[in-house]
Amino acid sequence: MIKHVFSVLILVIGFNGYSQISFEEAYFISNSDERKEGLIRNVDWNNNPTQFSFKSAENAKEVIMTLESAKEFGIYDKSKYVRRQVDMDRSGRTLNALSEEKKPVFQKEQHYLKVLVEGKASLYAYTDGNILRFFFNTGDSPVEQLVYKKYRSSKTEIAENERFKQQLWNALKCEGITKNEVEKTDYRSKDLIDLFVKYNACEGSDYVNFENKQKQNLFHLTLRPGLNSTSLRVNNTQSNSLNADFDNSINFRVGIEAEYIMPFNKNKWSVIVEPTYQYFKSDYSRSDRTVLKKSIDYTSIELPVGIRHYLFLDETSKLFINGSFVTDFSSKASIFNKFTEIKTGFNLAFGLGYKHDDKYSLEFRYFSSRELFHNYKFYNSDYKTMSVIVGYTLF
């Protein structure tokens, strides 16, 4: 069964590669300062792009535009990128990549910088893997990197060059911005955006906060009741008479799912956590020389933690696939007509589902086998579950 689940996931992901990224209303500016309106394939770039796909109309031919052929492009109400030649320091920030040099080592590079705030004072970002750099300019001044660098001050100590704070204090002088406020600013987009927005507002300058345009609810809480189809096979290595094969039983389950949408790649990836109440109740009987009857009544709280991937079909519909690592917190259970302490093992869960209007969902989920008798030497078990889950997103 698990092989079939993997096959479905691979097929769906393959389909996703051809169908997910859409063209959206956009523009670009050519080297001759000519503005071209049309459609750009919105990849929601995690790393700054070096090229983009453009079409003048829905049915027009797709054209690849590069750093050499376009000086600026933007997707309306989403993002904007400008071509700039800048002095960039690429010093590493991981422990094994730190240098002993405090000063940044600049080299001239040309890139599309992502515009975060545009106004009298503008803020830009550049991302390439684990490299994150912020740039700024005021008025018509050249774009300059905000300098932040970790370095080794000795063999055992790590220090920080936070020159960006002095740069900000020198450039963003306004009655509403204090020295203490600048000193508390961290080298991250949220802090820097807040400061640039505050400066532009303080100066009475028109500005655009592109991050605000993209803001949305990235956290969802969903009520998820459903039905489990569960079977259990119990084996005793010392006596066959203690073996039992409990048939499939349909039982109720209910979970509350917390989901955080990752803010990149067009919100197609998320992290999910779903505390779930579930129970399994079934009977087993065998007749040979004597009539043997056994039963199980097992209740627990499951905690799946995993990753979800969305496949958008249209504006209101999307498929999703997810994989989770499941921990089970068991209480005492009635097994073989007596109360027994159950100690379970970890298992995996794989789901395939559909969501409509970011509100209603339906999921089929398959769980790999779970061991229920880790604390019993002569018992082993094969506990299997498949679930059908409906969901209603509260917010």
TrEMBL record:
What is this protein's record name? PorT family protein
Q: Which domain of life is it from?
A: Bacteria
Q: Which organism is it from?
A: Psychroflexus aurantiacus
